[in-house]
Amino acid sequence: MTEPVTLSTAGTIAIIEINNPPVNALSQAVRQGLYDAVIQADADTEITAIVIIGAGRSFPAGADIKEFDQPMQDPQLPDVIDRIENCEKPVVAALHGTALGGGFEIALGSHYRIALPSAQVGLPEIHLGLLPGAGGTQRLPRLCGAAMALEIMFNGTAISAKEALNAGLIDRLVEGDLRQAALNYAAELQAPRRTKDATSGLADKAAVDAALHNATQIATSRMRGQLAPLKIVDCVRACATKPFADGRLFESDCFFECLASEQSKGMIHAFFAQRASAKVPEASRAQPRPLSHLGVVGGGTMGAGITVAALNSGLPVIMIERDHEALARGQANVEKVYDRLIAKGRMSLSQKSEIMARYRGSTEFADLSQVDMVIEAVFERLDVKRGVFAQLDKVLKPDAVLASNTSYIDIDEISSATNRREQVIGLHFFSPANIMKLLEIVVPQGAADDVVATGFALAKILGKIPVRAGNSPGFIGNRILGKYGDCAAHMMEDGATPYEIDAAIVDFGYPMGIHAMYDLAGLDIGWDNRKAAQGQRDPAERYVGIADRICERGWFGQKTGRGFYLYPDGARIGTPDPEIVALIEAERAKKSIAARKFTAEEIMARYLAAMVNEACEVLREGVALKPSDIDVTFVHGYGFPRYRGGPMKYADRYGLARLLDDIGRYAQDDPVFWQASPLLAELVASGQTFNDLNKG
Ligand code: 3H9
Questions:
Q1: What is the pTM of this model?
Q2: 667 exposed, middle or buried (CB, 10 Å; 0-12, 13-18, 19+)?
């Protein structure tokens, strides 16, 4: 087995290489190897300088997250980095790939930093509910100032080596052979230069105070409810006010407090769940088909958003519309996205032209004859979609993949309009398709493995987070949403206002409540679906007519200025509407329901019970492969707070037996709606959790 850390020499320079694929995570073995190598090189009188470098694709991308659920073994990373910084000889960190988290902290503890231009550096700990706990909060502000340090730690996204160079975080960029360049650099250096002694970043007290104030505001508004952002602010304050050693200890205490929190457990679960969702049986059995040219049918909101996502990722796209007028509108929808960026100064005209050079519009299906994949994004009606697929079948090359962007429609019904059903999949993009990360990849019966694998390959190209879904009405996300949406409607009819329900949901950590979300999406969409399903509804099922009454008045949400909320003068945040409260009371009176009070706790208990119970059915039917896929769906598509990990992770913590008891209690009033999923009952009986299913 290759050693995770090797020490070699080139003349009088020691090279310490970290080799722990795939991302050189700083496992115990790596920390030990690094610590030993640093001590050995520092003690060697023949050695004049030390280079630390990563093997393979990257400098370390951080602590080994897999070790976070066990007690941390010595040597601790902060001690290893302190030892690096205390070396008597100059230490150069040579960066390539992604130097993140603890990896970047090693670089900050090294005396000098050299990097390839393609390298990226960052402190993404906040996305794991953590803070940089190996000196990052103490060293970074000393180098680049509190404002920039807070921005880097709050965003958690990596910055380019060039930006890092400009900020004084990297000393030199080099092209070509990084190892040789680092050796040359090390040979020039005379003495250590310790970041802990740097003061320039903190010299301006007023700037530090302003940065802390600003960050506190963000932590309590946009990041409300999260522990790590507030702790990061505290650490930077400690950096500005305490000696380095005290600040470092304070940081360590804060790190372990965050690590012990449920929030970090939720976010770490979300991290691994996201990676697990891309691993599907089909992709392990087959290679994706080539994918270098895409067709999109339809230039409406979804078609244009998908086109933008594809153009942005470098794919050429042909957009098809039924006539020249519609095509012009489609192209305008695409260009609008770029024009907005230009107006905000985030894109130049020449960048837009470069992207639009990959775009072509046509009104002829025949122009799709050479594309590798077509995504149909026309009106959400089966007959319209079937018409498009019949036409595509006639013109596409034999091995092309046919995909339908739909949020509800049966893919089997769509694919049967073609003579190549095994080449058809569903792709449920979320709006706006160029922004939202989630992509449900719907696998109908008989889909070929390599076709499914191509769907996942497309997701990777587009930078989307894919989740495999079976072909069931509403797939994973909308099917479950339908259930907890009904639960919210029941509570509304029983006495909770939509505003109380939304407040409870926001308080739980969602960015908005379900009624505000309905208003944003347009109430007419649900109304159309309900009208279409009218004949098929089970008469024993409880039906709440409040949303229908609202739609009958022509109030479809934000776009009409009112829905559940009022949106005066184009406001984007709604205000409660007394007329809606009166309308609900009238509906209640029709059914002789006496309104009762709901606490926020009861609202959320019922809401989440409906969500998780339906999720169990989705699992039991194989529509989702594993509970963590449902977590990914709800975190990335429906606003479930990431720091809670997702509904299934939350349910494990809440307790499945308790959840089953709750459902049994609710069923006393409405046994039709509240039928416990057999899967939930089985898990409780066998003492298992959703996480056990994830592992299985
Ligand atoms: C930290 O550093 C704390 C310190 O401040 C203080 C300590 C005291 N550990 O994402 P990919 C695995 S906190 C373990 O698919 P990409 C990943 O699970 C850490 N495993 O590749 C996957 O495994 P598998 C701060 C890790 O090219 C494989 O590597 N650092 C780690 O799309 C490939 O990953 C971070 O938060 C890890 N740290 O993206 C960085 N990282 O193949 C987290 C990855 O079995 N990592 N794996 O599914 C990332 O952001 C991305 O993985 C990265 C590569 C950008 C590096």
A1: 0.95
A2: middle
Instruction: Ligand 1: list residues with CB < 6 Å.
Output: 22-23, 25, 61-66, 77, 98, 100-102, 105, 124-125, 128, 130, 132-134, 136, 275
Say whether both 226 and 374 belong to one domain. Answer: no
Domain end among 225, 260, 295 = 260
Residue range 637-661, pLDDT digits in tens: 999 999 999 999 999 999 999 999 9
Count Cβ atoms within 10 A of the Cβ of residue 237 and give its class: 0-12 exposed, 13-18 middle, 19 or more buried: buried
pLDDT for the residue 536: 86
Residues 368 and 507 grouped into a single domain: no
Spacing, Cα 73 to ligand 1 middle (Å): 19
Tally of domains in the chain? 3
Residues belonging to the active site: 105, 125
The amino acid present at 326, given as its one-letter code, is A
pLDDT at 467: 98
Residue 358: the pLDDT is 98
Question: Could you tell me which of 99, 6, 107, 5 has the C-alpha nearest to residue 60?
Answer: 99
Q: Within a domain: residue 274?
A: no
Identify whether residues 14 and 149 lie together within a single domain. Answer: yes
- How many angstroms separate the alpha carbon of residue 120 from the centre of ligand 1? 14
Cα(179)–Cα(56) distance, integer angstroms: 12
Residue with the nearest Cα to atom 46 of ligand 1? 61
Is there a domain that residue 271 lies in?
no
Atom of ligand 1 nearest to the CA of 72: 8
217 and 337 in a common domain? no
Identify the segments of the chain with pLDDT beneath 50. Answer: none
User: How would DSSP label each residue in 587-650?
Assistant: HHHHTTPPP----HHHHHHHHHHHHHHHHHHHHHTTSSSSHHHHHHHHHHHS---GGG--HHHH
pLDDT of residue 98: 98
What are the phi and psi torsion angles at 545 (to 5°)?
Answer: -95, 5
Q: Are residues 219 and 249 in the same domain?
A: yes
CATH for 201: 3.90.226.10
Residue 175 lies in domain: 5-260
Distance 615 CA to ligand 1 centre (A): 28
Domain of 602, CATH number, reads 1.10.1040.50
| Ligand 1 site-directed mutation target among 23, 80, 138, 437, most atoms within 8 Å of CB | 23
Each residue of 110-155: pLDDT tens digit? 999 999 999 999 999 999 999 999 999 999 999 999 999 999 999 9
pLDDT of residue 131: 98
36, part of any domain? yes
Read off the amino acid at residue 304.
A
Query: Among 65, 74, 280, 437, which is best to mutate for testing ligand 1, by the most ligand atoms less than 8 A from CB?
Result: 65
Q: What is the pLDDT of residue 1?
A: 64
> Looking at the structure, do residues 296 and 363 belong to the same domain, yes or no?
yes
